Amino acid sequence: QVHLRESGGGLVQAGGSLRLSCSASGINFKLHDMNWFRQNPGKERELVASITGNGRTVYADSTQGRFTISRDNVRNTVYLQMTNLNAGDSAVYHCNTRRQGVDFWGRGTPVTVSA
Question: pLDDT grade, residue 65 (50/70/90)?
């Protein structure tokens, strides 16, 4: 019943930008912390950014100040604005939230950064 759906990934040149979106259903969205993770075959899954229901944000050091997480509680959507992308940002990006102690995941949207 909980569904998360990511969109916005793609192929970009180094130095470019992307905005990822994650639409959520099956939860009282405004009360849930939302998270962005990323993973590629050569790396462990990494928590990129989190945002609480009331808008507090936390970022991984690896974002180097380049990423911004935000949310729209009317549209039940969380965003990840990514700028100055580099090859190390290439990964499948997943949206995540937790309900009653259970983690839910979107299927992911791939981001590929080319030289």
Answer: very high
Residue type at position 32: H
Q: What is the pLDDT of residue 41?
A: 81
The one-letter amino acid at 7:
S
Taking only the tens place, the pLDDT of each residue in 23-49 is 999 999 999 999 999 998 878 999 999
Evaluate whether 80 touches 20 at the Cβ level (below 8 Å): yes
Residue 55, CA distances (Å) to 70, 77, 80 in order: 8, 13, 13
Alpha carbon separation from 2 to 13, 34, 48, 89, 96 (Å, rounded): 34, 13, 21, 27, 11
Do the bridges between strand 10-13 and strand 109-114 make them parallel or antiparallel, or are there none, so unpaired?
parallel
